[in-house]
Amino acid sequence: MRRPYLVFVRAGEDSLHRRLIREDPARNWDCCVSWYATPAPQEQLAEFYSSGGFNKFDGFLEFWGQRPADLAYRQLLLLDDDVYLRPGDVSRFLRICDEYHTYLAQPALRWFTNTTLNALVRNPACLLRRVSYVEVMAPCFSQRALAELLGTFGMTRSTWGTDLAWAGAIDGREPIYVVDAIGMDHTRAGDGRPGLFYRRLAAMGVDPYAELKAVQQRYPALRTSRTLKAGHVLRPGLPPALARTLMWCIERLKFIVRLRKRALFRLRYWRASLQDALGR
């Protein structure tokens, strides 16, 4: 008997999907593990396993094209394998998305985790916060969103710009939300060197920045991720006026996240450069 939601994880050897499954024994989601590394022998934790495809969205298309005909999940969360949500939070996140009938959403990033876009960092004054777009790390699609946006999944080899294409295709017809009630950690920081995926792109002659620029040129109004002016679901229990004021104050404080990220990036870069110079 299928659960109402699906979590699709593009997984390598150190994938966190095992921990997410084990820490959510009453989970309301089925799991599909799509291996980009050698499949783990004899693993049987998930409901589905697949392999193939160059990136996460290629892998999803391969799985989705071969899925059983009776799969009708109400929400589908596509996770990178280095994303961690605390015990039970995946189920809670999917339940919130279903309750509020979100079209496209993602969990909020915790403060001081490895972040890229400040607008996606958690704002405790909100339950759901309307944003210009969510990123490819952990998007959650309703059935309708998946049907309408599936054609964008192969737009770039690097996946850079795919999130902009979703927002561009939606063109404001549907709200896009960060679910601030649920936080997630992006656990892989890197060491200042290109990872395996980016080395493979370079070997293929694919420039992620060029792919991103091409999508930006197609959707010029979506160059920045930002919290929109209206459409938010404020946290229950706070007077609305106070919640709105608090929300915007917290949004303005997110420059701290950006400063920390820059400092850590420089530290990792110089550490990697020193290790290379010492021959380690």
**Overall form:** globular
Distance between the termini: 52 Å
Into which percentage range does the β-strand content fall? Answer: 15-25%
Number of helices: 9
Mean pLDDT: 91
Number of strands: 10
CATH class term: Alpha Beta
Assembly status = single chain
Report the helical percentage.
Answer: 25-40%
Rounded to the nearest angstrom, the radius of gyration is: 19 Å
How would you sum up this structure, described in words?
The protein has 280 residues and is an alpha/beta fold. It has one domain (5-255): Spore Coat Polysaccharide Biosynthesis Protein SpsA, Chain A. It is built from 9 helices and 10 strands. The chain has helices spanning 17-22, 56-65, 89-99, 143-149, 162-170, 196-204, 208-218, 240-253, 255-277; strands at 5-11, 29-35, 48-51, 75-80, 83-84, 104-109, 126-130, 140-142, 176-186, 233-234. Strands 1, 2, 3, 4, 5, 6, 7, 8, 9 and 10 form a 10-stranded mixed sheet that branches. Helix 5 (162-170) packs parallel to helix 7. The longest helix is centred in the C-terminal third of the chain and has 23 residues, at 255-277. The protein starts with a strand and ends with a helix. The model has no long low-confidence stretch (mean pLDDT 91).
